[in-house]
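> @MW can you paste both from yesterday?
MW: sure, first one:
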Amino acid sequence: MARPREFDRDEALKHAISVFWAKGFEAASTEDLLAAMKIGRQSLYDTFGDKRRLYLEALARYQNVSVANQIALLESEASPLSGIRWMLMAMAEADPAFRALGCMGVGAISEFGQADAEISAMGRQSGEVLHAAIEKALRKARAEREVSADIDISGAAYFIQSTMLGLKVSAKAGLDTTGLRQIVEFAMEALKRR
């Protein structure tokens, strides 16, 4: 008879996310993961498979939660342009210790690039979900005359996503709140130009 699991799987996964987020895939040792997750090696293999399978599950969870949070911020304001601003500003005004971690998704892009098809596909999929939400906000902003009628919706959505990536990298590199806010304000002014 199989021995019952003696740990909370979801809690263990949260701890694995923290390790991978801080260290990336390669630098996170199995020992780091076991210590953070408070489980034994056999429990890791029995429950999550190998380190790579654990990383993929952790990255998927991180990306799903991150994108859902960003979309919630985007949709939290009555004005679509204010929603975009709030989504960007939330990154600029986050706790500096949190900002210093950067983004696990950006870390995966930096570590793997296009070399790992599965990880690359995960990043593309979450990017497409966010892109669609931003496009929706921009179409609404255009309809409400918050942005120019001739704005390239797809190009503007990519611009916002690139701004988000830049904010995350700049924050990890140590840019302070004032500098991050300036990036957000500049991006918002660029969207409003007619």
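MW: second:
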Amino acid sequence: MPLPANLTTAEVAEYLRLKERKVYDLVSQGVIPCVRVTGKLLFPRQRIDLWLMNHLEGDDAAGTPTPPVLAGSQDPLLEWAIKESSAELALLCQGSGDGVHRLLDGRAMLAGMHIWHAESQRYNDPPTLGLGGMRDLVLIRWAKRQQGLLLATDNPHRLTRLEDIARPGIRLAYRQPDAGVSHLLQSLLERHRIDAKQLTWAANPSLSEDDLALAIRQGEADIGVGIEAAARRQGLAFIPLQQEYFDLAMRRRYYFEPALQRLQAFARSERFAQRAKALGGYDISELGQVVYNA
């Protein structure tokens, strides 16, 4: 019979081949992952597996320190949660692709990403991203986000669908090539048989979700592809296109760093859930799930 998603103290003791008293000792020391629900200890099995593999592999061996940096794609909810949780992570959000490179080079502790792979029809596929060689790679689900068209509130050009970006004189806001949404936009153009060379692009790329929304609000562009939360923050109109997965990639040992544990604990709070609802376009029902474990 398969094990439940959350183990009791007795079940986790049997799973780890330990005595229950030893489990309680590990809990009191703050060593083993657990949560309290109405006074009862529960042990999420996915987190226990990560914890166990981390110790078996000796991933906490001394080496060159990795800076406490979260690189990759910008996410308004993640940015807010890092500040509110006092996670003590520096943000260096220059696109999903940049986050992949910094994670591989040891210049970031974790990377946020939402890269669409048209061939596999999947998001954030490690081998396709060049992360398949990381034997201790883990992907944690952050949220499902709504991607769509951002446009001015009054919509003076009467833009209603993706194909409208090809109309003469319509200026398209866009992100840098390494950004996750750039992969999605390229896929959408191919799917709708729109020639990128025939489009009128904004004068400069937007380097974040908020920058793209701001460019439209300030009249530097007429339309762009981005997330609903960014549209709401700038008071823009929004037309949904598709839902995407935003994940956090890291080496297994960093999952247990205090910074990430504080962030995840805060993300389970009611205040966090209220913020996600207020921002709009977020589905956090899978937050914290391990979606890839090398």
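> thanks! The domain at 69-136+246-293 is CATH 3.40.190 (D-Maltodextrin-Binding Protein; domain 2).
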